[in-house]
Amino acid sequence: SILAVIFDLDGVLVHTDQYHYQAWKRMADEEGIVFDESAGDRLRGVSRMESLEVILEKSSRTYTSVEKEALAEKKNGYYRELLDRLTPEDAAPGSCEVIAACKQQGTKVAIGSSSRNTPVILERLGLLHLFEAVADGNEIVNSKPDPEVFLLAAKKLAIDPECCLVVEDAEAGLIAAKRAGMKSAAIGTVINSLTAADYRLHRLEELTAVIWG
Ligand code: B16
Ligand code: MG
Predict the structure, then answer these.
(1) 95: which of 9, 37, 58, 167 is 20 to 30 A away, CA to CA?
(2) 203 C-alpha vs ligand 1 centroid, how far in Å?
(3) Measuring CA to CA, how many Å separate 28 from each of 43, 51, 192?
(4) Ligand 1 center to residue 61 CA distance, Å?
(5) Which pLDDT band holds residue 39 (cuts at 50, 70, 90)?
(6) Which residues of 36-54 are buried (b: 16+ CB within 10 A; e: fewer)?
(7) What b-and-e string marks burial along 179-200, b requiring 16 or more CB atoms within 10 Å of the CB?
(8) Model pLDDT for residues 151-167, shown as the tens digit of each residue
(9) Choice between 39 and 183, residue whose per-residue pLDDT is larger
């Protein structure tokens, strides 16, 4: 049975996936690197430096690690400018209701995100206090598709991985959930992915039916 739900953050509880895209696009344009929507989907759930590597695949020149750090830093600055605009209104539709329903049923809720900006985002959305555990990019060595962030969330909750359900918008995240031995629910464009998710959600509100039938 499902005792805990581990929510991915970007692309699930808040549409900061668009902000990531815009910030990378701004950086890529400045560098004269081609960057389009299809590359955008490959950035979901993977770390900042790994995202940069995906973008640099389209570059004609090579970058030193010092230059790469600077580009990632620049992108993060652009991204933080966009995050400054976040308010509680920006929580994805249904997210507050779904979290409240879980809590009412005694199902624990946690965050499992690759983002180092997780604390800032949860604070701005006014959601931080709702989670029993937050595991994010600041605390892990390997990001999704490695299961580390989800296993850390389960450990913080003191719940066995097989009793956790992960909600994800990324291919990398679904793979990570599987490797962690957890159940998964896919939402967003990833519902059409070939990776087996246990459930596919068109809207976050459908989650309660998945958990309590
Ligand atoms: P940051 P998630 C991920 O968050 C994003 O999906 C991914 O696009 C981003 O590169 C990664 O966080 C790192 O974010 O630059 O803020 O540390 O989907 O795992 O919540
Ligand atoms: Mg995500």
Answers:
(1) 37
(2) 21
(3) 14, 12, 28
(4) 25
(5) confident
(6) eeebbbbbbbbbbeebbee
(7) bbebbbbbbbbbeebebebebe
(8) 999 999 999 999 999 99
(9) 183
Locate tokens 């990833």: which residue?
190
Distance CA 34, CA 57 (A): 10
**Distance from C-alpha of 42 to C-alpha of 209, rounded to nearest angstrom:** 29
Q: Are 184 and 193 in contact (CB under 8 A)?
A: no
| DSSP classification of residue 190 | G
Q: In this predicted complex, what is the ipTM?
A: 0.95
Kindly report the three-state secondary structure assignment for every residue of 84-130: CCCCHHHECCCHHHHHHHHHHHCCEEEEECCCCCHHHHHHHHCCHHH
* Contact of 169 with 184, CB cutoff 8 Å: no
